[in-house]
Amino acid sequence: MITLRIQLFALGWLAIGLPAGAAPDTLTIHYNTRVPYAYVENGVMKGIMAEPVARALRKAKIPYTWAQTPFSRAMAMVKANNGKDCMISMFKKPGREHFGRFSAPVYRDSAQILLVRHADEAQFKHFASLASAMTEGGFRLLVKQTYSYGPGYDTLLDAREGPTDRVHEENEQMLRMLAESMTDAMIIAPEEASALIRHRGLKPEQFAYIRYPDTPEGELRHIWCSLNVPQSMIDQFNRALPPGAL
Prior knowledge:
By secondary structure, the protein is α/β, with parallel strands linked by helices. It has 2 domains: 2-108 and 220-240, D-Maltodextrin-Binding Protein, domain 2, CATH 3.40.190; 113-210, Periplasmic binding protein-like II (D-Maltodextrin-Binding Protein, domain 2, 3-Layer(aba) Sandwich). Helices cover 34% and strands 22% of the residues. Strands 1, 4, 5, 6, 7 and 13 form a 6-stranded mixed beta sheet that branches. A hairpin with a 2-residue loop joins strand 2 and strand 3 (44-46). The longest helix is centred in the N-terminal third of the chain and has 14 residues, at 2-15.
């Protein structure tokens, strides 16, 4: 029911002021609940990605609907190119432009860190660099299946020989696994880590944020749409983004 109310709100609000028959086809904006990027609060979409995306769509007079969809399923829908499907909070990973169109950047993350339990902090500070931690460390690293952590981290993950658990769970469940010692570290932006820790009612002092001198710069986040969404519509959205916001 919450999703339905969000969809009706989005479509009804955007229909105001559009000439009959002139509105472009409705975009389906897929998201998975992810504090602080996109989440529902009192039946309204919130988040540091969801809100600017919604504002730009309204300004551009592009009808849209939110759909809560698991990440892997949304990826498959964009690649299938059967509808006007878009995903929120996406990195520009090599190869993705063959399957879809990226908007201009909407948000830039802070540099992603290794989130670990506070009790294990000294173990991770033993390494002089992220590269040495990822290649030499025997700690259990938890990552999301099919997900991109940006070119810098993705390259290190491909070369990693230590134990790496790839899961389909969302970051909220992954944080629980870390807190319960089911894994030793996860890659996450610090603003997301702080929001998730608060959201789950955990204590910040339970965790440590590990950032090395060679930690890659924070990645840009875009919306990523199927090729069935015309470039003209992406351009329309881009023009509605605030200039110089990043």
